[in-house]
Every structure is written in structure tokens, then in C-alpha cells.
Design goal:
alpha/beta; Rossmann fold; UDP-n-acetylglucosamine1-carboxyvinyl-transferase, Chain; about 35% helix; about 20% strand; shikimate 3-dehydrogenase (NADP+) activity
């Protein structure tokens, strides 16, 4: 096709018109290349995405053109094409080599011309190939994305990426031509178009202010230009080119022209060309972390805003310019901060840290050595220098930081004189008035903030007005729409963030919309962020509905989002409840002139809130030409809450100057007050429309400041530092927003300040009253909440706590109020610094640059994972809770388990004061007692701060001083445990208890009052289900074989202190571990069968999301119920819907509350979804103690693959946070399981790798569950449902492992003689079968330890053996090692093969003592054996003594027929164990308490009772059982008969004595053997039933 048939715009670069721009250029491109670049071969390289749109057309054009060429004496040129994979991963060394191999394979020579058809990846990669192939060949750029058209294709920069960063290896290699075919953008996704517009905006921002103005005002038109496909090559010639096409082409040409000009001056990037890197220094660093999910232009967009903020911070760029840049980028659907949901919701976003960004920025072509250089704007359209500017890391860090700290001191610019930003209230009203008005209005001093941005954007979407900027953005020109408004396009919602003013004003504005035939949508939808959806709008909607407007709530009643039909506003009489917000009133007033009828607005529902703001609205309406009349009472002239608004149209004044914001002015004025310096605020004085302008006179002056005020200016001089006075009462109803500032000052004022009239502040951006109370508490400041305010008890500055981290609730007022306090309190951290962008975006810069207080950035880093240190583990534990909850009893048990000392504070009080608590209260009163109690607590924490359990009285939390002590103890690593018991049981107990003074009020009322204090002061919660009786006498049945309270107390306190954390021993490398996922809505149903359900597993997962009730009380009771029946570690999981569970996705706060509850309950493992907010995760990690975090990802869609970059990113995030990493994907093919294993092996091969759970869901993923060695989740056939698709049982996993060779069958034996009737095969084979293990246990009966045993233990499939008489000693020479127990007993009953440095080692052990210990411990708690008797002196007696000593028996008596044998045994244990020989059975001296444990080790056949005395038989006297004062146990180790003489005697003579047979000991020691051999707990219930069945059948 001839060049003349296509109209192109040519742009010169480096002296050549080589950039050709137009539409539908493919024929033109082919013609130009063939006629101007002769070659033997033309190679077109593209990616598979572009090939499907354009490759065929190129092939056809080349074939047609080449076929028409005459061959002559030369061969006809070839045309080749090569397709590569799309995406950044192709832009690598490997990708470059693949193209080079293709060229070489096809014998391409140096005269080859290469065409790069594609986006930036293709252009950069192919350009670098061209630069190096045959030392350089010619090439052409044919960019297909807007980004490539305006950026990467222009300038000759070519490169590939490396793991260290983007574009680090490359060359400058200029293309022969750059063909810009704008028609190719018609197939470009809108996101990719926005991606390119980032570079267009960048170019205008650094070079062309006029072009920026156009981009700013014409975003909708520019978007529309690519949304209508051209037909029949329209646009190829000028005469067929539409207006939209001309606009699009002009935007592209304008942007390219700037870059071409810069490149021509500086082709190799020595200085000026740096400028096109505006936004790229930080943007590239962000991209390095987020690629490929987030696009280049999106990252550069964020980089531009951050680099603009950096310039503002340095005093170079105005906030107006930052605001304009931000708004312009937003207009093209680009993210402007890392908190944008598109970024924040990505797993990779958690890897963006300041340290990492700064590290990546070290490798940047603009840098000079270690000096970072960044392009800084000075204004829109110009840069600070004609090159990148050096910027220190500290400034970059401060800009990137999400939190800040203010360095306390005297403001260096004292006396300060400044202007605050424009009033938010006036700015928003002015925008609505001017937009609805007729004519053009220039708004001066408009607030550039989030709130005004969303208001302008919404009014633009409604087509209510047109906006443009003048004076470099200092003036907003509003072309009013005369009240004409349109429904936004279908699917377009008005998103208002957390802008409450905009939400309320626009609700009424949207009722003015009139239906049009051109409307795509039926309604206008207003929505906001999560907090905005909680803020009330009900009274306004109710009033508008009553007036005929059709408004629907789309989610929660009374809150956004709203759907509003375009029916216009009817008018007439409107009644409105105005006791919640004056903004409702202003909303109706502003829109009233455009109603169909004049409006009479009557305010009802009590006291009208914030009347000055209503007056402000009326005054502004008057300025815009509408006079509102407020009615007055006849006779008295008293003003009524009734307003008459006429119909009309606002007439825009030519110019309207917006007052500075009076609420914002309170912060610099307060800093002057608190630091004893002077501050003058201009443009705010006594003539102000704003109620907050009264703050200086009515608050600061009363607090001791000198105030002078003119009509337009306010000056405050603070008193000497520390001398602010408290104000008895301040009614701040007319300046409610300023109460936060007053509260911050009151914290350091001398005395108590009472602030009232601010009830509406509970429904602002947050509950501000609660927020101030909670955050002031971090400084040690006490407050009292009132119905309509609060009281603040001031403290001297030096007494306030330092280093507080203030949560700002995404509320600008909270952040700025606490910055006042931070100016005098060292180390105060203000989180969420960006929330100030709502009203004063550059507050932190102004605080430093205009007031003179240094502000530093702070990164709230995730704490490194670590369990409690041993030094901290011994810090005393404090118990609190209501009287009657069993604190002292629990304390005694805890102290016993920890081997600490328990102190009952009431008993200690009596010791210290020589008077009982009841009498002390009667004589001195409650206040004196509380003071004494608090002082006692302080002494206890100081003097008994380690190795004590301190049980406090129930009322200790009644005073703030005591609460502060407890909270301080927790903050320093101590544990305060709230002991909880059913309140009905407490009430019953206290009804008869008489040792303490009466409450004087209902117990339930006391409980309600104290409950929040107990929660506030405690770090943990112990739920006590013990039956308690009057006077603290608590009875537990010691013979109860269920898991007792003692065992749970021991587990709980061992775990929370970290002394002996209850974690799974199998969670180590080389071992397999499993957990059972409980899927019951109520776990109570599972308790009777829990032993069977949990057979083989190492932990139990409580799926809290599947419980029928998610309240904290219900969940805590569920955990407590499980604790009563199992000691297995628990895993606490709150799985969200998005990750395959049932918990609401957006209920992050509720999920985190439950996870924190789990830590408080001492749950061992907490499953934390990495999608939860970073701050919440950080808090969990910070307080986890000995519990462990399972950092989890669950990907249900099947989109993510194990070999994807996202998988690597997810692992990095989880590994950084958790003790255990869990990643669960969905398998669709068997290959997914192999990929899973490959990924897991790679991660597990890292140094210090954390335990890693890597599995696939679905039936296709079951193999991954089998192969995963770490905490594989399993189900059980008895459960109602499986927790996830593809989940299988523990037994199924073991069988599968065996089938694939991962679990070889082992052979186990019993060595001894005679053993034919042994019960051991029944025991172990039952257990193997129940757990699905492929092993066998059989008898090997031999008279001696000979070759048969030697050969057996040498076999590779030997799994272990039990050893009985007569081989317990003779087996020892064949073994490699003995355990301490085997050495102590001098005999072996168990052989355990173990691996040691890849060599098998045979270890000899003895579990006889464990069998004896288990049988006794099931009935009598550790430490409660005051004395014990062992009958016999053989090897089993040795085991009995060893067991009794481990149970804490204070004295052990030994009787044996042969005295010398007894002596030998006693001597072998001395001096470690106190064993005493008794000469005659059943005779106890007066100073000896008869034993409460008896163990007989002699054959029953050699014993008898006194009633049937037989020669040579041992006769048992009834006096053996002389102990009758409590629980006792007699254990006869003989198997036969079923009832031995000793056990029979116990039953006949002693009702308090329990009996245990030898079979029980066999079972207990067998359980221990089984666990040593397999690493799995033996399923005791079903195994014991089988063994007893066989035993009884034989008996």
C-alpha cells in the first residue's frame, strides 16, 4: 500500500522523523519497512496474546508485498515470525537466548531486520536481542500497548530483568522506526490503557502544565476514545478520523513529543533524561515486589504520588500540586497508595517494607554510588532540577512510613504564624452550591483533601458541574450545572470512602436527579468503606422517604450503601430528626431550592446538634443567592427549629474565598498551649462562620492561655510548660470536633476536666469518645465516660507513660489530637499517619516545616517469631476473678504443677495487717481496704515477682490504680489469669460463704461491673468447671479416670508460662504429624467418642467458623469442654468464606478477637489467615507466648499453581510471620501434587526452614495429603462432614503410605519364656489395625538370648521388641544404648531401634515403671502420695519405687521376706530416694501415717488372707489398709487370679481404697512401648477393651 494513502503524524527524535503515528497502520508499516530497510530476512517477534490479534494480518501483508517484488539477481527476502510467552518472565536471560537460538537456527545474518510487535516486554527484550545479535542488527518498534507507545518504545533503551531488579542488563539501541498504531489500542483491556496513562500523566507533570490541565479535565473523553471500535479502518486517513480519535492521537503524540525532545538532548541518560524517571525510583522498587500482578504503570502511579509527597516534605512542592497529581491519576483508575485495595489485598503487599524498598532502590541507574537520586517536582509541569536530585534515606523512609513519631521539644519557629488548610465544612458546602448554581465560580483556598476529592468526583459522575484549575491549582473553577444532574452509567457507584459529609450531602443531591431516556441505570448508588457503612444516615433517609423520594438500603438498615431513584425532590413540609448530626439538616437545606415545591423544614427529635454548622449553611446559601427564613415564636421572638426555603437557583459569585479550617486550627494552637509557646492562625477569627473558632476563647483561655483575637486572626500564648489548668466543665456542643484537642490538653492539665455536649462524636469516623479513652489509657491517663462526654483526670507531664503506640482508627482528628500530646511525650508513635489526608494532608510536613517540631517515620515491623524466654517464664502468675470462682484452689494446683509457691492475697493481707479482711472493712471502710489491697499488690509484685502464683481478691479491679498495676505487669511480660466460672454457681456459692464482707448489692450487678475490668487487666482466661462448696472446700473425685482438673491446670500453666509448652513432639523434621479437623457445630456431641476420633493424631483442630455460635463465651466453653477430655494440643481456626470456611470474609475485627481469645485460653496453635490485616497479625504474634502461629493461605479457585511467583511470595509472607507455614491449593491434575512436593522440598531445603504444611484440596489432591509430612489435616468416618474436599482419615493415610513404599511394614516381637498366654500381641496388633499401620507383633519364645534373637534384631524389618523374664538382663549386651530408666532399674523390657547419623542404634528401655505410674496417676494426683508401700524386692519392685518417686511420694516403705534383698534394693536408690524397710506388714508406729498407695510385686499364688492361712504363703493383714482419711490405691501386679487375695482384702475392709490389677499395668506400659516404637499415641480405649476381653475369656 502506498504511503500516501495513510495519514500519519511524524515526530522527530535524534534528528530523524522516525516516529510515525496514526490508525490502522499495518499496510503502511510493511510498505515502509520493505522500501526503506532492505534486508535478506525480516523477522517479526511477538507474544501469543498479540499474535491472535495482528500476526495473520502482518503475514498476509508481507506475503502480498514480497510476492510482488521482482527477484532479479537476488533471492527474494524471507519473512519469519516467532512467538514468545507473554509476561515479564520472558524478559530474562533465558528468554533472550531462546530468540537468539531461533535466529541462528534460521540462519539469519547481519542484514536482518527485526520487528518487535508487542508491549514493553517484547520491545525491551527484542530490542536487546537486536543490539547484540551479530553485534547489532536493525530493528523497528511496533508497540501495541499505550505504555509501550509513550514510554518504552521511545528512546532506544533495551534491557532484560534479573532477580536483583528490572532492566539491569541492556543497551542503548535506537530503532530505525517506531510505528504507533493507535487502532491497536482498541483490543487493549481498559486496565492496560490506564497502565499507559500513568506514563502520559508523568510526562505532562514534569514538562507540560497545559497538557496536564487537559488530562485533568478530559479523562472521561479520553477513556471514551478507546471504547468505541473503529469500523472499516476509520481513522487511517484524516477525513475518516473521529473527534475521539483525534483526541487520543493528540494525547499520545503530545506525550511522545516530550520524551523525544528529552531523548534527543540526552540520548544516553546522563542528566536531563533522568526526568522521565519521575515516579520510577520508588515505583520500580514497588514493582520489583508486586510484579507480575501489579502493572508497571500502576506501580509508577504510586511512585509518583510518593515522590511528590517527598518533594512536599522537603518544602519544594505545594500540597495543591500533590492533590492535583493524585486526583488526575485516580481519574484514570490508577492506584495512588499502597493501601489501595488492589494492592493491599495482594499477598505480596505484605512483603513491602521500608527496608526492602530502600534496598531495591540502591540499584538504580540514576544513583551515584550509595547516593539515591530522585526526580522531584517543583510544580505541575516543572521539576526541581533538570536532573534527579540527591535525597537521603531518612526522608524517603519518612515518606514511605505508615506511622510517625514527633520528637518532643520547643517549636523552633516560635512564635509560629501560619494559615491552616481551607475548611472542610465550607469547602464541601461551596462545592455543592457552585455545582448546583448558575454561572462560573472561582473557589479560592479550597481544601485539597480526600473528602473534597470524593465530593468533586461524585459531582462529576452526576454530570452536575465541570471543574478546572487555575493559578497552578490554587483556584478551582466551577462551571455550575444549574441543578441538572444525571444517573451515573450502569455499574458505576459513587464510592465515598469514609467521607461522612459527602455521604450526607450527596444523599439529598441524588434525589434531585431527574430521569432521562438516555439513562443506562435505573438508580444512583452511593457507597463507602467498611466504617462508612456503619455510620448512621437513617434519619435523613427517613425524612426524604416521607417526602416521596425512593431510597433503598442495599445492606444494613440505616447505613450506606443506598440506591436512589431519579424522581426529583418533591418539596413541601419535611420533618427531620436532627439530634444525631447537623449534616442531615445542611443536606436538605442545600438542595431545597431545587425541589418541585418550596420546602418548610421542621427539626424534631430533641436538642439540635451543632447549630453553628446549620447557621454556616444558611449564610453560605445567602451568598449564593438563596435566602432561608428561620421562624420565630410570636411574642417572645424565640427562634424555632423551622426553616422556610424558597424555590430558586443559586447564582454563582465570580469568586468565593473559603475560610481556613477552624477545627484544624485547634492543633497548632494546642501545641502552643502545651509547649508554652506562641502561635498565630491567620484567616480564622471572631468573625468566622465556624463554631470551632471559639476554641481559643472558650477552652484555651480557661486552661490558662493568653488569647488575642481579631475578626480574621487568632493568637495563643501558652502558660509555662506543665501549668495548664483543668476546666471543671466545658460544653463543646457548638465545636464538637475540637473536643479531641481539648481532651489531649486535659491529659496534662492540673486536675479533672469535664467535657460535655459531644454525644454525636460516637458516630463519626470512629467512636471518638471511646477512642480517646482507650488511647489515653496507654499514657496512664484515667478517664470516665459520660452519656454525652467524658472526664479526664490530668497528670503531671513527667508521670505520663512514654513510648505509647496510638491507634488512630483511620480518623484524622484522633491522629492530629495525639500529635499534640506527642509534642511533649517521648517516643509516642502515631499509627496510620495518612488518615490526616482527610482534612490536612500535609500536617506532618507543616508540623516540621512551619511549626518546628521534628517528625520521623516509623515502620511498625512484624515481631520476629520467638517463644517466651526462660527468664520470663518464671515471672509470677497473678490470678483474678470473682470471689467463688476457685482462684485459691486453682492457684494451689498451678503452684504444685509449676513447683512454685501459692500466695492467697486475703491470707497474706491478714498476716500483714494482723486483722481479717471482713473486720478491716468493718473498722476502716471499703475505700481504705481498697487502698491497702492495692499497696499489698504492689509489694507482692515487687517482692514475689518470680516463681509464685498470686491469688487476688475479686474486688482488686475496682480501683484504677490496681488495674494499672495489673496491666503494667502484663505489658512487662507477666501473666494475669482471669479465672472464670459459671455465674450461677458463683451466686450459689456466695449465698453460703461467710468469710468475706457482704457486697451490699446484687452479685450479678457486681459481676457486670467488673467483667470488662477483668478482661482489660488479664492476659489469659482459665475456665473452671470444678464443683465448689462453701468456705472454699472444693471436692474432686480422685478416682475419676476422666481427665481431671489437675491435669488441665498443669497443662494450662505449664504452657502459658512457657516452662513446658504443650506442643506436638512429632512436629520435627523426619517425623510425620497429623491433626483431626473437628467439624461439629457443637463439640459436646463429639466428646464421648473423641478418643476414637483422635486415634493416631497429634492435635485437634477446632473449626470455630463451623460452630453454631461465634460469641466469645460459647467458643470459650467449647474449648473448655475439649480440655476436660483430652490433653492433645488444639489448633484454633477461624476459616473465612474466601478461604473455604464459613466465617464472613470482611469480619476481620471479629476474627482477630476470636484468635486473641484463643491465645488467652492457652490454645497451643493458632491458625492465622495471612489475608487478615497486618496490624492485627502483628498483635497476635506479639502476644503469642509459647503458643505457635500457623501462617496460612487457602486458595480454592485453582487459579494459583505451585510453580507460580505468587506461591513463592505467599510462602515468604507466611514464613516471615508464622512458626509453621501452611499453604493449601486446589488440584485439578496429578501433576499438581508433584508440583506441590517439588515446591515443599525446595522450601524445606532452606537453612532453618520452618515446618511446612503443603497440600492440595479436591479428590485429585489426595496424594499430596498422603505425602505431606507436617500436620496433615485428616478427617474420620464418624464425623458429620469433612473439613475440606479430599480430606481422608488417618488410617487411610497410613495405608496409602505403605502402598507407595513410604511406610514399610515392621515386625515387632515379645522375647521371653514362657509367653504363650501373653496379652501383648492382642494389645499391639489391635493398635496397629486401628491406626492402619502395616506392622505385626508376634511371640519369639526362647529359653536363652541366643542366635535366634540376635538374627531377629539384625533384620532390616525389625521394628522393636518387648522383653520379659528371663531375658531382661541377658539382652543388654546385644544393645547399643540404655535409657536412664533402664539403667536405674538394671533391666530392659523394651527394645527401640533408632537412627543416629544414618546408622541404626538399638536402645534398651524400661517401661514397667511407666505402667505402674500410669495406673496410680489415674487415681491420685502427683504430689498427693504422703507415703507408699512396696511389697517385694525383685526387678519389678525397683520399677515401682522409681514410679512412686516420680509421682512425688514423700516416703516409700519396702517389705520383703528376705531382709538382705530389701537392703540391697534400698542401698541402690540412696541417697536420691527415701526408701525405708518395714519389718512387719501392717504395723505402723504412732509417728507414721499409714500409706495411701500399696504396690505388690510378688506372685499372687504365694499370698493369702488371714482367714485362709496356708503354710509358706504370705498372709496379708487387714491393717495394711489403715489409711482411711482420703483416696488410696492398691496395685497388685499379678495377672492371676482375676481377684488376688490382696485386692479381695482391700474390697472387704477399706471403702476408700481403689484397686488395680496387673493387666492394667501391662496396658499402661504397653501404651508407652507403642508410642516409643511408632511415635503415635496408642488408641487406649478400643485397645484396652480388646485386651480385657481376651483376658476375661481366659480367666
Amino acid at each position: 500500500m502506498a504511503a500516501t494513502s495513510t495519514d500519519v503524524r511524524r515526530i522527530s527524535i535524534l534528528g530523524k522523523d522516525s516516529i510515525h503515528c496514526g490508525f490502522h497502520l499495518i499496510p503502511y508499516i510493511v510498505h515502509t519497512v520493505l522500501t526503506q530497510l532492505s534486508a535478506s530476512t525480516y523477522v517479526l517477534i511477538t507474544d501469543s496474546n498479540i499474535a491472535k490479534f495482528h500476526l495473520t494480518t502482518f503475514e498476509n501483508e508481507f506475503d502480498s508485498a514480497l510476492s510482488s517484488l521482482s527477484n532479479g539477481t537476488h533471492a527474494r527476502p524471507r519473512f519469519l515470525s516467532h512467538i514468545i510467552s507473554p509476561g515479564e518472565l520472558s524478559k530474562s536471560r533465558e528468554g533472550k537466548a531462546a530468540i537468539e537460538d531461533f535466529l541462528l537456527l534460521n540462519k539469519c545474518t547481519r542484514d536482518t531486520v527485526i520487528l518487535a510487535l508487542g508491549g514493553g516486554v517484547v520491545g525491551d527484550l527484542v530490542g536487546f536481542v537486536a543490539a547484540t545479535f551479530m553485534r547489532g542488527v536493525r530493528f523497528c518498534q511496533i508497540p501495541t500497548s499505550l505504555l509501550a507507545m509513550v514510554d518504552s518504545s521511545v528512546g532506544g533503551k533495551t534491557a532484560i530483568d534479573t532477580p536483583r531488579g528490572k532492566n539491569l542488563i541492556g543497551a542503548f539501541w535506537q530503532p530505525e522506526f517506531i510505528f504507533i498504531d493507535a487502532a491497536m489500542l482498541e483490543t487493549l483491556p481498559s486496565r492496560e490503557f490506564s497502565n499507559g496513562m500513568a506514563e502520559v500523566v508523568k510526562t505532562a507533570a514534569i514538562w507540560d502544565a497545559a497538557e496536564f490541565d487537559s488530562l485533568e479535565s478530559r479523562s472521561a473523553e479520553i477513556f471514551a476514545a478507546i471504547q468505541t471500535p473503529s469500523v472499516n479502518h476509520a481513522g487511517r486517513s484524516k477525513k475518516t478520523r473521529s473527534q475521539a480519535q483525534e483526541l487520543l492521537l493528540s494525547v499520545i503524540v503530545g506525550s511522545i513529543s516530550v520524551k523525544s525532545h528529552i531523548v534527543t538532548i540526552d540520548p544516553t541518560e546522563k542528566g536531563l533524561r533522568n526526568l522521565v524517571n519521575f515516579g520510577h525510583s520508588i515505583g520500580h522498587a514497588i514493582e520489583a515486589v508486586l510484579t507480575p500482578t501489579i502493572l508497571h504503570g500502576e506501580c509508577v502511579s504510586i511512585g509518583m504520588v510518593l515522590e511528590a509527597e517527598l518533594s512536599r516534605q522537603m518544602g519544594i512542592l505545594s500540597q495543591v500540586s500533590v492533590g492535583r497529581l493524585t486526583r488526575c491519576l485516580k481519574a484514570y483508575n490508577l492506584p495512588v497508595s499502597l493501601s489501595d485495595p488492589r494492592i493491599a489485598n495482594l499477598p505480596a503487599s505484605k512483603l513491602i517494607t521500608i527496608e526492602r524498598i530502600l534496598d531495591i532502590m540502591k540499584v538504580d541507574k540514576k544513583n551515584r554510588g550509595t547516593e539515591k537520586r530522585i526526580v522531584l517536582l517543583s510544580r505541575i509541569g516543572a521539576t526541581h532540577e533538570q536532573q534527579a536530585t540527591p535525597v537521603p534515606d531518612a526522608l524517603i523512609s519518612k515518606t514511605l512510613s505508615e506511622s510517625v513519631t514527633v520528637v518532643p521539644g520547643r517549636p523552633s519557629f516560635n512564635p509560629v504564624k501560619m494559615t491552616t488548610p481551607g475548611s472542610k465544612s465550607i469547602s464541601n458546602r461551596a462545592l455543592v452550591l457552585a455545582a448546583l448554581g448558575t454561572g462560573t465560580c472561582r473557589l479560592k483556598n479550597l481544601l485539597h483533601s480526600d473528602d473534597t476529592q470524593v465530593m468533586m468526583a461524585a459531582l462529576s459522575e452526576l454530570k452536575g458541574a465541570k471543574f478546572e484549575w487555575e493559578d497552578g491549582g490554587e483556584t478551582l473553577v466551577v462551571h455550575g450545572g444549574q441543578g441538572s444532574l444525571s444517573v451515573p452509567p450502569k455499574g458505576k457507584e459513587l464510592y465515598l470512602g469514609n467521607a461522612g459529609t459527602a455521604a450526607r450531602f450527596l444523599t439529598s443531591v441524588c434525589t434531585l436527579v431527574q430521569k432521562s431516556p438516555n439513562d443506562e441505570a435505573d438508580t444512583t448508588v452511593i457507597t463507602g468503606n467498611a466504617r462508612m457503612k456503619q455510620r448512621p444516615i437513617g434519619p435523613l433517609v427517613t425524612a426524604l422517604r416521607a417526602n416521596g423520594s425512593e431510597i433503598d438500603y442495599l445492606e444494613s438498615e440505616g447505613c450506606l450503601p443506598l440506591s436512589i431513584r431519579p424522581n426529583g425532590l418533591k418539596g413541601g413540609n419535611i420533618q427531620l430528626a436532627a439530634s444525631v448530626s447537623s449534616q442531615y439538616v445542611s443536606s436538605v437545606l442545600l438542595c431545597a431550592p431545587y425541589a418541585n415545591e418550596p420546602i418548610t423544614l421542621e427539626l424534631i427529635g430533641g436538642q439540635v446538634i451543632s447549630q453553628p454548622y446549620i447557621d454556616m449553611t444558611i449564610a453560605m446559601m445567602k451568598t449564593f443567592g438563596i435566602q432561608v427564613a428561620r421562624r420565630a415564636e410570636e411574642g417572645t421572638g424565640k427562634l424555632l427549629d423551622i426553616y422556610d426555603i424558597p424555590k430558586g437557583s443559586y447564582q454563582n459569585p465570580a469568586e468565593y474565598s473559603i475560610e481556613s479550617d477552624a477545627s484544624s486550627a485547634t492543633y497548632p494552637l494546642a501545641i502552643a498551649a502545651i509547649t508554652g509557646t506562641s502561635c498565630t492562625i491567620q484567616n480564622i477569627g471572631s468573625a468566622s462562620l465556624q463554631g470551632d473558632a471559639r476554641f481559643a476563647r472558650e477552652v484555651l483561655e480557661r486552661m490558662g492561655c493568653q488569647v488575642s483575637q481579631t475578626a480574621t486572626e487568632t493568637t495563643v500564648q501558652g502558660p509555662p510548660m506543665g501549668q495548664l489548668k483543668a476546666v471543671e466543665e466545658i460544653d463543646m456542643e457548638v465545636m464538637t470536633d475540637a473536643f479531641l484537642t481539648a481532651t489531649a490538653l486535659a491529659a496534662v492539665a492540673n486536675g479533672k476536666t469535664r467535657i460535655i455536649g459531644i454525644a454525636n462524636q460516637r458516630v463519626k469516623e470512629c467512636n471518638r469518645i471511646r477512642a480517646m479513652i482507650d488511647e489515653l489509657a496507654k499514657f496512664g491517663v484515667s478517664t470516665i465516660e459520660l452519656d454525652d462526654g467524658l472526664e479526664i483526670i490530668g497528670k503531671p507531664i513527667e508521670e505520663l507513660k512514654k513510648g505509647a503506640s496510638v491507634h488512630c482508627y483511620d480518623d484524622h482528628r484522633v491522629a492530629m489530637a495525639f500529635s499534640v500530646l506527642a509534642s511533649i511525650i517521648t517516643g509516642t508513635i502515631l499509627e496510620e499517619k495518612r488518615c490526616v489526608e482527610k482534612t490536612w494532608p500535609n500536617w506532618w510536613d507543616d508540623l516540621q516545616n512551619k511549626i518546628g517540631l521534628e517528625v520521623k517515620g516509623v515502620e511498625l515491623a512484624t515481631p520476629s517469631v520467638s517463644v517466651s524466654s526462660t527468664s520470663d517464664a518464671h515471672k509470677s502468675v497473678v490470678l483474678i476473678g470473682m470471689r467463688g470462682t476457685g482462684k485459691t484452689f486453682i492457684g494451689d494446683l498451678a503452684a504444685s504443677a509449676l513447683h512454685w509457691t501459692c500466695i492467697d492475697a486475703d491470707v497474706h493481707f491478714e498476716t500483714v495487717h494482723s486483722i481479717g479482711v471482713r473486720q478491716f472493712v468493718q473498722e476502716h471502710g471499703w475505700p481504705a481496704f481498697r487502698d491497702a489491697e492495692t499497696n499489698l499488690l504492689k509489694d507482692l509484685l515487687t517482692q514475689r515477682g518470680h516463681n509464685h502464683v498470686i491469688s487476688l481478691g475479686g474486688g482488686i479491679v475496682e480501683t484504677s490504680a490496681a488495674r494499672d498495676l495489673l496491666k503494667d505487669w502484663v505489658s512487662k511480660g507477666g501473666r494475669v489469669v482471669h479465672v472464670v466460672r459459671n455465674i450461677d454457681e458463683v451466686v450459689e456459692y456466695l449465698g453460703v460463704e461467710g468469710s468475706r464482707p457482704a457486697y451490699g448489692e446484687p452479685i450479678t450487678e457486681v459481676f457486670k461491673r467488673r467483667a470488662p475490668w477483668f478482661a482489660e487487666c488479664s492476659s489469659h482466661r482459665f475456665i473452671n468447671h470444678v464443683e465448689a462448696f462453701a468456705d472454699g472446700k472444693i471436692v474432686i473425685d480422685p478416682t475419676d479416670t476422666k481427665r481431671g482438673v489437675r491435669e488441665e491446670v498443669a497443662r494450662f500453666f505449664d504452657h502459658i508460662t512457657g516452662i513446658s509448652a504443650n506442643l506436638s513432639p512429632n512436629l520435627t523434621s523426619g517425623r510425620r504429624s497429623y491433626f483431626l479437623s473437628l467439624t461439629y457445630p457443637d463439640v459436646m456431641v463429639a466428646l464421648p467418642k473423641l478418643e476414637e476420633l483422635s486415634a493416631g493424631v497429634d492435635a485437634l483442630e477446632v473449626r470455630v467458623d463451623l460452630l453454631r455460635d461465634h460469641s466469645e463465651g460459647y467458643v470459650a466453653d467449647q474449648i473448655a469442654a475439649l480440655r476436660r477430655v483430652t490433653s492433645l494440643p488444639l489448633i484454633f481456626t477461624v476459616r473465612s468464606v474466601a478461604e473455604g470456611g464459613a466465617f464472613p470474609d470482611n469480619a476481620h475485627k471479629e476474627a482477630l478477637q476470636l484468635l486473641n481469645l484463643a491465645l488467652g485460653l492457652g490454645v497451643e496453635y493458632i491458625d492465622v489467615e495471612m489475608r487478615l490485616p497486618e496490624q492485627g497479625i502483628r498483635q497476635l504474634v506479639g502476644r503469642k507466648g509459647a503458643s505457635q502461629i500457623i501462617a496460612s493461605w487457602h486458595e480454592w479457585t485453582g487459579r494459583l499453581k505451585w510453580n507460580s511467583p505468587e506461591a513463592q511470595t505467599m510462602y515468604e509472607i507466611a514464613s516471615r510471620t508464622g512458626d509453621i507455614v501452611k499453604m493449601v491449593f486446589t488440584a485439578s491434575t496429578m501433576q499438581d501434587n508433584f508440583d506441590c512436593q517439588t515446591f515443599a522440598a525446595k522450601m524445606n531445603g532452606r537453612p532453618n526452614a520452618k515446618p511446612f504444611i503443603a497440600i492440595n484440596m479436591g479428590a485429585s489432591g489426595q496424594l499430596s495429603r498422603v505425602l505431606n509430612p507436617t500436620f496433615s489435616p485428616v478427617s474420620h468416618p464418624l464425623q458429620p462432614t469433612r473439613a475440606a474436599p479430599g480430606q481422608i482419615s488417618f488410617a487411610q493415610v497410613q495405608k496409602a503410605l505403605h502402598l507407595i513404599g513410604e511406610l514399610p511394614a515392621k515386625k515387632f516381637y515379645l522375647f521371653g519364656s514362657p509367653i504363650a498366654h501373653s496379652l501383648s500381641p492382642t494389645l499391639h496388633n489391635s493398635a496397629f489395625e486401628l491406626l492402619g499401620l502395616p506392622h505385626t507383633y508376634s511371640l519369639l519364645e526362647t529359653s536363652d538370648v541366643g542366635s535366634e534373637i540376635e538374627n531377629t534384631i539384625s533384620e532390616p524389618d525389625f521394628g522393636g521388641a518387648s522383653v520379659t523374664i528371663p531375658h531382661k538382663l541377658n539382652i543388654i549386651p546385644l544393645l547399643d544404648q540404655l535409657t536412664p530408666a533402664a539403667k536405674a532399674m538394671g533391666a530392659v523390657n523394651t527394645i527401640v531401634p533408632m537412627d543416629s547419623n544414618s546408622k541404626r542404634v538399638l536402645v534398651g528401655d524400661n517401661t514397667d515403671w511407666l505402667g505402674i505410674r500410669g495406673s496410680i496417676a489415674a487415681r491420685i494426683a502427683v504430689g498427693h502420695i504422703h507415703s507408699a508401700l512396696v511389697i517385694g524386692a525383685g526387678g519389678t519392685s525397683r520399677a515401682a519405687i522409681y514410679a512412686l518417686h516420680s509421682l512425688g511420694a514423700k516416703v516409700i516403705y519396702l517389705w520383703n521376706r528376705t531382709h538382705s534383698r530389701a537392703e540391697e534394693l534400698v542401698t541402690s536408690f540412696r541417697p536420691d530416694i527415701d526408701v525405708r524397710i518395714v519389718d512387719k506388714l501392717g504395723e505402723w508406729s504412732e509417728d507414721v501415717v499409714a500409706p495411701n498407695v500399696i504396690v505388690s510385686t510378688i506372685p499372687a499364688s504365694e499370698t493369702c488372707l488371714e482367714s485362709s492361712s496356708e503354710p509358706e504363703h504370705l498372709v496379708y493383714p487387714a491393717s495394711l489398709f489403715a489409711y482411711t482419711s482420703g483416696p488410696a490405691i492398691v496395685l497388685d501386679l499379678a495377672y492371676k487370679p482375676v481377684e488376688t487375695p490382696l485386692l479381695k482384702l482391700a474390697k472387704l475392709t477399706a471403702s476408700n481404697w481403689d484397686t488395680a490389677q496387673g493387666v492394667e499395668v501391662l496396658l499402661q506400659q504397653g501404651y508407652a512401648q507403642f508410642e516409643k516404637w511408632t511415635g503415635r499415641r496408642c488408641p487406649q480405649g478400643p485397645v484396652s477393651r480388646n485386651v480385657w476381653k481376651v483376658y476375661n475369656s481366659r480367666a
